[in-house]
Sequence to fold (257 residues):
Amino acid sequence: MSDNKNEKIIIANWKMKLGFGDSVKLAKDFSDKFADFKEESKTVVACPSLVSLSEVKKVLGDNVKMGAQNVFWEVQGSYTGEISPNSLEEIGCKYVIVGHSERRKHLLENYAMIHQKVKTLLSSSKLIPIVCIGEEADDRKTDRRDYVLMNQIQQALGGVNIGGDQKIVVAYEPVWAIGSGTALDPEEAKYAHKIIRLALNDMFGMKVVEANFKVVYGGSVTSENVKNFSDLEDIDGLLVGGASLDADEFLKICKNI
Ligand code: PGA
Fold:
């Protein structure tokens, strides 16, 4: 991710959908398909499962950066089963997803933890956090979305110091849209991204937001609907789950955003 404010970032989240061998195979596919993908203004990131990261790094090629799907908020210590930001950096990760809604749901990860993770990443590593926010279906129905988004941003990023060349990606993923086959309507996406940007501007100031933040959309993006998002102001890229498990499909998405 560079300082170019028009740069788009497209992130593949492979979740726990592939075993070790299939992850390495898909990484090789990415490396082949993205060999000629040299668009200056686009950064492509793949986030494989933890166990496959080292091996994936060996085959991923130069045009796709590597990210992890989770990290702990301490760099070292008695934290059985957890993942240090330093170890992720050591094996070649540049990015890490923080607080994905699937972790919030199944692992009871909350925004206090997410906040700690972001702080540690910024103070003790060069990893770029991809911080996930997004409302539930009920919040949308009852018009609580704006409040929920602003509150999540406040909890995750309130009091966080960011400056210099540090970066944060905020991924707006309406929980109800993830894996549903129904992406957010572009007008709604435009509106939600505006709210997110206003909340960030309020906390960090416009200059910092422009220089240090990207705000991306995630939730059932495919090569069919990607065009809906490509011209929207305030959308700096995409976080793609299901459709990133096929290198051809993902390449189409990257070309068309
Ligand atoms: P999806 O997942 O593209 O399969 O909806 C997105 C995500 O969970 O990051």
